[in-house]
Amino acid sequence: MAAAADNGLMVCYYGSWAVYRQGNGKFDVEAIDPAICTHLVFGFAGLGSDNKIKAKRCNFASQIFLSSIVLDPYNELCENWGKCAYNRFNALKEQNADLVTILAMSSSSSTRKTFVDSSIEMLKAHKFDGLDMDWEYPTQRGGKPEDKVNFISLLSDLSTALHANNMILTAAVSAGKLTIDPAYDIPGMAKNLDIMNLMAYDLHGAWDPYTHHQSGLYQYPDDTGDNVYLNQDFAVNYWIDGGMPSTKIALGVPLYGRCWKLDYSTEENGYYAPASQPGPAGPYTRSPGFLGYNEICEFQKKESDWVVEIAPGMNEPYTYSYKHERIWCSYDDHDSCIKKASYAKSKNLAGMMVWSIETDDFHGICGRPFDLIKTLRETFSGGDIPTPPTPPTTPSTTTDPSAPTKPTTVPTTSPAPPPPDGVCQKPGINADPDNCHHYYLCSLNANDKYEATEEKCAEGTLFNPNADICDWANSVCAIGGICPNDCA
């Protein structure tokens, strides 16, 4: 299987938890346009205690990948009232024969053979074309120095097994020098990966006490210290200089903004303006310090007081509104996507990557639907997005008339689940109103009875019942009115 399209990659991550969002933010599998991406990555799967891959749900709404990994068989699997999201996701290939579908795997060290074997089994069962590794990050956050070697061993075993089954191996990796150096054996990764998705975003955010662009293409002129490393150009060159072929790198662009509340002590509103609190949560993503591009453009369309500027020497916009809780957001728009895709082309990269498809303007409220993704792909390829081929019709064959018939389409609805029972108010994610350090995953067994699994949030995080994710504790407590026992 070819890892790249002839005119460049357009890798689109899909955050499956967007199905739980409200109003115009709700995004299920069927909202995906299968023509605009060359590779679709379903986020996420994870490891069970037995080191076997499992269907899981997690959050990427902070600077680091939070270890808030939640089993979500209700959304992703068909069994026991499930919504079959994996199968419906891969059914998109019926509309685009060239589409490559990949399952993203959040990971830590594990028993490799058990993990590899279970991964192949699951990918085959749901007709995925490959696996994306998202270990953030080897040797970091409780890891061990030897994990740098362990990661390459895992990639080697996965690469061998996947390629033997005509599948591909990709990985999402850091753009930060201070993470790259201890975490990655770049030549070893280059040997085993088909595509490397460079997460060139979240370089700044509300964890900084000042404003800055989270995904600047180049260094801001006033940057000093470690901030001089926090830009896309540095990251791309650092990976290439370290031994990663440019033709394996997909440059990541965020389809969301990082946001702060400007401090009241000053009227500064450019880069490095004092801002000690995260910006208010949006109506769809509902996570402080984070707004989807769809939320930002809708605010700007409806409210005239939003100011949009580009800092001297930079290519990306930032926007602020004093009426909207003094919010300040750095983000990417149509024009900055053109510049980043043009840059990637000039560096002979494999193509582009986005996190994530469900926060583009997919309804077309502010312009054409999925404008940022389409702009990245059109600019990199130098032409219009081609009309995708459809799979050939399978010729009819003679079958046993007495054999049971199978459904030709994947079910999109399920019978109504049982009524609430104990901690389980519904299938899927359930908050504990008295304790935000954990939550419950509720699934239905073969007898249609709820089974609850306790999932703990990582240290420094709390469960945000508004967004159904574990997020930074200060961001959750900034919402107000939730987690009273943990935010006092």
Which key features would you list for this structure?
488 residues, alpha/beta, TIM Barrel, 6-stranded antiparallel sheet, 22% helix
Written account of the structure:
The chain is α/β, with parallel strands linked by helices and 488 residues long. The chain has 2 domains: 9-255 and 332-381, TIM Barrel; 428-479, no CATH class. The chain is built from 11 helices and 21 strands. The chain has helices spanning 73-76, 85-90, 112-126, 147-164, 177-183, 186-192, 232-242, 293-302, 334-346, 371-381, 473-479; strands at 9-15, 39-47, 53-57, 70-71, 100-106, 130-134, 168-174, 195-199, 249-254, 256-261, 277-278, 290-292, 307-310, 317-321, 327-330, 351-355, 428-431, 438-444, 450-456, 461-464, 469-472. The strands form 4 sheets. It has an 8-stranded parallel β-barrel with strand order 1-2-5-6-7-8-9-16, surrounded by 6 helices. Helix 3 links the parallel strand 5 and strand 6 (130-134). The radius of gyration is 22 Å and the shape is globular.
As an assembly, this protein is: single chain
Helical content, roughly? 10-25%
| Shape label | globular
- What is the average of the pLDDT values? 86
The tally of beta strands, per DSSP, is 21
Return the domain count.
Answer: 2
Q: Find the CATH superfamily of the largest domain.
A: Glycosidases
Helix and strand content put the structural class at alpha/beta
Unreliable stretches, pLDDT < 50, 5 or more residues?
55-71, 396-413
What's the CATH C level of the largest domain?
Alpha Beta
Distance N terminus to C terminus? 54 Å
Radius of gyration: 22 Å
**Biggest β-sheet: strands ordered side by side in the sheet:** 1-2-5-6-7-8-9-16
Family: Belongs to the glycosyl hydrolase 18 family. Chitinase class II subfamily.
Organism: Homarus americanus (American lobster)
Protein name: Chitotriosidase-1-like 2
GO cellular component, one term: extracellular region
